[in-house]
């Protein structure tokens, strides 16, 4: 009896090995076959495909939902920032209007017709610009008939770009701040330092290599730093006070350490001018 059971176990082991070898051979044969997979294999593939779809659809939905939520949060934050900027702009406009009214009332009380900051504007288009004289001058389509006069300052949207040098009936020639001519008439300017002080000087030229204006005739102990704003001072001519010229790029002392030359990055892009604004000061000087 004991011998029978031992033989039985041996028979079962052999049958199991034969079945396993059969499955292995069948698997190799199916893999190497170029024909369509068997029904069992097709069924397994279909089940796998359906499972992947069932899992991937919710996963993709969650991913898209997260992206949509992120976009919504970003949009909300941008909208909030824009609203804050609009509020600031509205407040600035209200404040400017209030100051304008106060200034008007104060001038009435003092019997003043105008101040250094009063001016009117006239827009003009650039007619021509000679490539051989590119950085020195250009011609605009307004002249004496429109009320233009020699030495009136001219601006772009960003800041001062020059002044009227020649006036005809229907057009005018404009000298740019980048002019290297010896007879260029520099603007009286003031540097507004970060600590609230002001330093006066005269625009004395243009460095074409650095593409920077030169502010000279400065003798001061006041610290002038890179980034300080430079505006017109309103003294000595037709130029109103407070027109933007640019920002301080660097400061250089002379050989004796007494006078300063301040290099200024122009506020305006002098190479891209199509429309300009002529400034007419309310109080005309010399």
Q: Could you characterize what this model shows?
A:
The structure is a single chain. With 286 residues, the chain is an alpha+beta fold. It has helices at residues 2-32, 39-110; strands at 119-128, 137-140, 153-155, 160-167, 172-176, 188-192, 198-207, 212-218, 229-232, 244-253, 260-266, 275-281. The strands form 2 sheets. The chain has a 6-stranded antiparallel β-barrel with strand order 1-2-5-4-3-12. The protein has a 6-stranded antiparallel barrel with strand order 6-7-8-11-10-9. A hairpin with a 5-residue loop joins strand 6 and strand 7. The longest helix has 72 residues, at 39-110. The N and C termini lie far apart (136 Å).
Summarize the entry for a quick read.
The protein has 286 residues and is α+β, with helices and mostly antiparallel strands. It has 2 helices and 12 strands.
